[in-house]
Design goal:
By secondary structure, this protein is an alpha/beta fold. 38% of the residues lie in helices and 22% in strands. Helix 6 (130-139) links the parallel strand 4 (114-119) and strand 5 (140-151).
Length: 259
């Protein structure tokens, strides 16, 4: 099963290697979302320092330079060769950041050897992440921290829609691709139920210690009306306050090994 999941992740990476897709382009116009995620990391990592941080599926290394502030060594573990090639240029002034071709289901590190693992905007490509969680639990140090972001299907706007339809939230991940894109040539793209993700983590011996609600004001309309500093001032208040309600479209978990 683990081998099959690892091959599936590589197949997804090959889809991103095809064509002229550049993940850097995705972040143009998303400065608020980028800043909101960095804000969440600063909250969760405040006062901590690590021996080895691994950013799993980190694309071209967007967050790796940020993680250098918190770790002696940083590794970008990315399955897409195209993104690694882009990372070589993006990280050219940061020679201490290692680049490694690897999937979340097969990281290739020794047991208990990594004390900070991060996964951001990756889980939406992994409908059933049990093998990935078991692999992370394997390589995570006993005193290590795993920070994971994922697309939250139970966010506020979806909640209103479900209430209007008199429907309960599905426990299973929800495929949000357009019908014409639901084929084997397109990578999976799902939103997750946070409660299900928590249970999946627990099955892998991992425990959620802290939650943040992130990108709470992710709206093209709001971004046109409100300046970025105002959005981020509000975001700073909302991240911890709305965490337990899973208000925002993006959820951050701080995770440790279960004792």
């Amino acid at each position: 099963m683990a081998q099959a999941k690892s091959q599936e992740a590589l197949d997804n990476a090959e889809r991103y290697d095809a064509g002229d897709y550049n993940y850097q382009d995705y972040w143009k116009g998303r400065e608020y979302e980028d800043a909101a995620e960095r804000m969440a990391f600063r909250r969760l990592l405040k006062g901590r320092h690590f021996r080895h941080a691994v950013d799993v599926g980190g694309g071209y290394g967007r967050l790796c330079i940020f993680l250098e502030k918190y770790a002696d060594k940083v590794t970008l573990a990315e399955p897409s060769q195209k993104q690694l090639d882009i990372a070589s240029d993006f990280l050219k002034d940061h020679p201490r950041i290692e680049k490694k071709k690897a999937t979340a289901a097969n990281l290739g590190f020794a047991d208990g050897s990594v004390d900070l693992i991060t996964i951001v905007r990756i889980l939406h490509h992994i409908p059933q992440p049990a093998p990935e969680f078991h692999e992370i639990a394997r390589v995570l140090a006993d005193d290590g921290i795993f920070i994971m972001e994922f697309a939250n299907y139970t966010h506020f706007l979806n909640r209103l829609k479900q209430v209007a339809k008199l429907k309960r939230f599905p426990a299973e991940p929800v495929d949000i691709r357009r019908p014409e894109n639901r084929n084997d040539n397109e990578p999976p793209f799902v939103n997750h139920n946070p409660k299900t993700v928590s249970r999946q983590l627990a099955h892998a011996g991992l425990k959620v210690e802290k939650v943040l609600s992130v990108s709470n004001l992710r709206s093209p309309g709001l971004k046109k009306i409100l300046p970025k500093p105002v959005l981020l001032s509000l975001e700073k208040l909302m991240q911890p306050t709305l965490a337990k309600t899973y208000f925002g479209p993006s959820t951050f978990f701080l995770i440790k090994k279960a004792k």
